[in-house]
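Question (not urgent): is this output format expected?
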Amino acid sequence: MRIKKERGKSNRHDAYNKLLEEINRSGCRLTQQRLAIIDEVFRSQKHIKINDFYFRIRKKYPGIGLTTVYHTLELLEKLGRLRKISGVGKYAVYDTNVIPHINYVCPVCGSVEDGKLSKDIMLNLTRRALKLGRHNPEIEITIRAPCKAHAVR
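Got this back:
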């Protein structure tokens, strides 16, 4: 399976091929099921709720099991292509945006929205981590608060 190289999409195509090379180097086999999952991840925008993602991909590929989906998403997380958002709800949620930012999570419905994280805040958090003897910090900020639809006024 390959993503077509469309005008203006060469960076995405290059990133996709680079990812496939990384997976090969990691020793994992690129099965048709794994490729289908990776293709769907590349089409996904922002946040991947595993239950929704699983049912969406099963419509196209009925033979795919939930374990295969979990293992593939965990592999993509290990390779730094996804980030798991903690504390969202019953099912895992992955973020396709691995650049440090804020995730606003609604504890009522589980919706996730992104917020920007300024360079100054990033620098201050990194400096603080280094002062505490923590090297190469991964900064993940999750704010749990009801979304507009569930806010009590």
